[in-house]
Amino acid sequence: MAIDATEVPDLVERMPAFPQGVTKVLDLASRPDCAPKALVQVIEHDPVMTMKVLKLVNSAYFGLSRPINSINHGVVYVGINTIKNLALSIAAIGMLPKSNKAGLDMNQFLAHSLGVASVAKLLATHLGVPDKDATDFFVAGLLHDFGKVVLAQFKPEEFRHCLDQAAEQERSLHEVELESHGISHDEIGGRLAEAWKLPTALAHAIHHHHHPEHGAEDGGDGMCEAVFAANQIVRSLGFGDAGNPLIAEFPPLVSERFGNDLSGLMSVLGDLSGEMEKARLFTQL
Amino acid sequence: MHFKFWGVRGSIPAPGPKTVHYGGNTTCIEVRGENNELLILDGGTGIFPLGQSLVPEFPLKVHIFITHTHWDHIQGLPMFLPIFVPGNEVTIHGAADPITQRDIGEVLARQMEYAYFPVREAELNASMSYLNIQEGQSVQVGGVNVRSMLLNHPVLNFGYRLECEGKVFVFTGDHEWPYNIYNKDDPDYPDYQQMVDEQRIRVVEFFRNADVLVIDTAYTDAEYPSRKGWGHGTFASSIEAAREAGVKRVFLTHHEPTRSDADLEAAFDEARKSHDVGRERDPQFELAREGVMVEI
Ligand SMILES: [Zn+2]
Ligand SMILES: [Zn+2]
Fold first, then answer.
1. Is the pLDDT higher at A256 or at A64?
2. Is the pLDDT of residue A1 over 70?
3. B232: CA distance to ligand 2 center in Å?
4. Which stretches of A23-156 are assigned E, i.e. beta strand?
5. In chain A, where are the structural domains located?
6. DSSP symbol at B186
7. Where is B252: in which H helix or E strand?
């Protein structure tokens, strides 16, 4: 059965965030002396909250003269109280259930997303991207699999079928999705990002995270390549799980960007257990 | 272009013998273009006496620009006489509420609901219209061009820059200069600082070469540390920014409701001394005072 991508944006309006994010936002917001940076940290570790906050600040409500790339960036422009109340209104929708009919383990999914986010940021630094833009890589890593949350939430039977098939046949998940439903999670996430006027580089990195050669721009800062690479690295480390059983080798574009293949880049990066431990902390309630 | 202060007090009206000189009404400024176009900035309690003064001009056309919807900037609107009189055309411009996704008309109509006010918005006799402001958008009222910019406050707050025949008038509404939310040793500090610096440059550009700048100056430098994050400026921040932007004349406003006339002057005197106000090429700094009319 084909999935109609045009109905997705409306569905996501009512989509709740992760239990970890919701619980922490409610807790922080109940303290009058809540530090802005603590609130930012919670939002930027929750894919649903991040996506929705970026959607709002990039919307026509503000018509800002430049795209907003990260939660910090949003706080500078629209103020911490507006961001806080927005997070509260998202928290009020409820929480994503820990298990769903699709059989996607949300804790493992969150670990995967956070892991890719941290490694993507690390790779940004590795590529010599300035500090202030490295945060954008983190956001791209965090949101790259957003389409899967949407599928698990709104098309659980169809998505379960894909997850099962990918596991049984040891095929990559996005190919199974494409074959079964005519659309895959990378495209769903990318289209949402575009529909919501998120920064173009971010939308591209989400849309093309399985095929960076389609999204990477000449002279770009390498966000697409970094998200692709981070995705493979985190899966090689066995950290988290987002339902894809395969680890892909680097296509030429990615090896060129890093001057290394997957195992080469991993040995250059060295021990990532500290980074992964930090990411895991956020998945715990 | 000329303008008149009808309310200069912040947060809540402060009537009484101790505030009689600077005035106790909350924020409201009347601005007139060269062809007597009528614009009003904010609808604090000062808009009530302003409304009474407009009776001889009925039927009239008025454009009200709301900087933000905190009480002290809208609480006079339900008592603004022109909205009850047929033939008047009232257009209200302001920010939509992005949290509840209500537009400015819905936000303002709520303060006229049954529990709060006897007349419902739908019963107003004037012809009422509401327009959501977007940042950077410019609105033309006769010969007056109004441009808006989002300024930092605990709710969406638009500053307005009015230009008419080469003269420039800027009003911030409520505004606290963004500050770094990280500590110097946090990894996010430099990244955030860069964004804060960029935003400051944009705001100063918005003020650039204004003939008159009316700027939120709620706190003394000593009061500020315990009120950081509340969304208001200080004597220091206003003086610095006006100098940087090359503004000619500056009116400091949003006076604290607890500040008597004497206290306010004492605070201003101290700020003038500590910031060496009056040095060469300095803008002219004054305290905003209810009832004062200024020709630009
Ligand atoms: Zn105020
Ligand atoms: Zn206010």
1. A256
2. no
3. 8
4. none
5. 17-94, 98-283
6. S
7. strand B249-253
Q: What's the pTM value of the predicted model, to 2 decimals?
A: 0.93
| Encoded tokens for B166 | 């080469």
CA dist., res. B107 & res. B102, Å (int): 6
Residue numbers of the domain that contains B235: 2-295
- The number of folded domains in chain B is 1
How long is chain A? 285
For testing the chain A interface, which of B67, B69, B93, B99 should be mutated: the one with the most A CBs within 10 Å? B99
**Per residue in A224-255, pLDDT tens?**
999 999 999 999 999 999 999 899 999 999 99
Buried residues in B234-263 as b, exposed as e (16+ CB within 10 A): bbbbbbebbbebebebbbbbbbbbebbbee
Contacts of B136 in chain A (CB under 8 A): 63-65
Residue tagged 């009689």 (tokens): B20
Q: What is the CATH number of the domain that holds B117?
A: 3.60.15.10
Beta carbons of B162 and B146 less than 8 angstroms apart: yes
Cα–Cα separations (whole angstroms), residue A27 to A39, A95, A210: 10, 14, 37
What pLDDT does residue A8 have?
81
User: Which of A77, A85, A135 lies at the smallest CB-CB distance from B199?
Assistant: A77
Two tokens, residue B157: 């707050």
The helix or strand, by DSSP H or E, that contains position A75, with its residue range, turns out to be: helix A71-78
Candidates B99, B134, B153; nearest CB to A62: B134
Distance CA B17, CA B110 (A): 33
Q: How far is the CA of B231 from the centre of ligand 1 (A)?
A: 9
- DSSP class of A248: P
* Contact by Cβ (8 Å): A142, A117: yes
ipTM: 0.93
Of B96, B190, B196, the CB nearest to A131: B190
Count of all residues that appear for chain B in the document: 296
Alpha-carbon radius of gyration of chain A: 18
Contact between B153 and A59 using a beta-carbon 8 Å cutoff = no
A77 vs B99: CB contact, 8 Å cut-off? no
CATH architecture entry for A98-283:
Orthogonal Bundle (1.10)
Q: Give residues 131 to 160 of A whose Cβ lies within 8 Å of B.
A: 131-132, 134-135
Question: In this complex, do B150 and A62 lie within 8 Å of one another by their Cβ atoms?
Answer: yes
Place of tokens 């739908």: B122
The Cα B283–Cα B278 span in angstroms is 8
